[in-house]
Structures are given as structure tokens and as C-alpha cells.
Automatic annotation (TrEMBL):
PANTHER family: AMINOALKYLPHOSPHONATE N-ACETYLTRANSFERASE-RELATED (PTHR43877:SF2), AMINOALKYLPHOSPHONATE N-ACETYLTRANSFERASE-RELATED-RELATED (PTHR43877). SUPFAM superfamilies: Acyl-CoA N-acyltransferases (Nat). InterPro entries: Acyl_CoA_acyltransferase (IPR016181), Bact_Acetyltransf (IPR050832), GNAT_dom (IPR000182). It holds the Pfam family Acetyltransf_1. One of its GO terms (molecular function) is acyltransferase activity, transferring groups other than amino-acyl groups. The keyword tRNA processing does not apply. The keyword Cell inner membrane does not apply. Keywords: Acyltransferase, Transferase. Residues 9-147 form the N-acetyltransferase domain. CDD domains: NAT_SF (cd04301). It comes from Sinomonas atrocyanea. Coiled coil: none annotated. This is GNAT family acetyltransferase.
């Protein structure tokens, strides 16, 4: 998949054999990725990860998504995380990643896609708006720390 609005970017949908490629992209994530962690994510059904790579094959962004199903609603895609390397921001990379994940969701029969963003994260909110998201007023993110 080539990005129309992000020059020299290729999107790569990772699969079970791409754990090494994912660990090489650790600097885009909150914490270093282990080979075991990469394999676990990439082999789980309904887990998706797309890397944006520059013309030299270096990862410059990613989006991850997880399909969630409920007995009375069907299946939807949870956009788990989105990140773009600082030098590649504001060039359409994030929007292209989000749109590609939405296409995977459509192809998989998902009825919708959702995520959460921190209030004040204007870059993320702008990306989501530009890709057709509706921001729900008055929502609150509730988090349980189970560790």
C-alpha cells in the first residue's frame, strides 16, 4: 500500500512472520518490544498492526487495532494505538494509517471503529476528525490498573 499524501511512505500490514520487523520499530512505541511480545500480538486473531516505512524501509509510524465482538452488537475495531515519528508528523502519515485500519475493519465486517484520545491532544483529534471520526462530547475514559 503506497500513501497518496505521504511521499516515499509504504504501509506494511504485519503478520506472524514479521516479529523482527516489529521489534526493529521499538522506538515508535512506549516501551521496547520483545520478540515474544511481537509474536504474541501478531499471531492473535483479530489483532492488526500496520507500519509506515520510509523509502529506506525504516519504520516512521504505526497503527494497531483489535477487533472486539459483543453478542448483541457485532464486531467493531478498537484503534489501540497510533504513533508517527516526529520528523514525519503533519505529512499525512497518521491519516493514511487510520484510513488503512478502517479499510481492514470494513473488509473484516466490522460495523464501526473507535478509540480514545486525551483531551488537549489536538494532533490526534485533528487526525481523527480528518479521517471521518465523530468526537463524542462528554465521554470519560475509565481505566483499571490490574497489575
Amino acid at each position: 500500500m503506497d500513501a497518496d499524501n505521504a511521499p516515499n511512505i509504504t504501509l506494511r500490514r504485519l503478520g506472524p512472520h514479521d516479529a523482527g520487523r516489529l521489534t526493529a520499530a521499538s522506538d515508535l512505541f512506549d516501551a521496547p518490544i520483545t520478540e515474544a511480545g511481537a509474536r504474541e500480538f501478531l499471531t492473535r486473531p483479530g489483532h492488526h498492526l500496520l507500519l509506515a516505512e520510509d523509502s529506506d524501509g525504516r519504520a516512521v509510524g504505526f497503527v494497531s487495532g483489535v477487533e472486539t465482538a459483543h453478542p448483541d452488537k457485532g464486531t467493531e475495531m478498537f484503534l489501540y494505538e497510533l504513533a508517527v515519528a516526529e520528523g514525519w508528523r503533519r505529512r499525512g502519515v497518521a491519516s493514511h494509517l487510520v484510513n488503512a485500519l478502517a479499510e481492514i475493519a470494513r473488509e473484516g465486517g466490522c460495523y464501526g471503529m473507535w478509540t480514545a484520545a486525551e483531551q488537549g491532544n489536538e494532533a490526534a483529534l485533528a487526525t481523527y476528525r480528518s479521517t471521518g471520526a465523530r468526537l463524542e462530547p462528554g465521554t470519560t475514559l475509565v481505566v483499571y490498573d490490574l497489575a
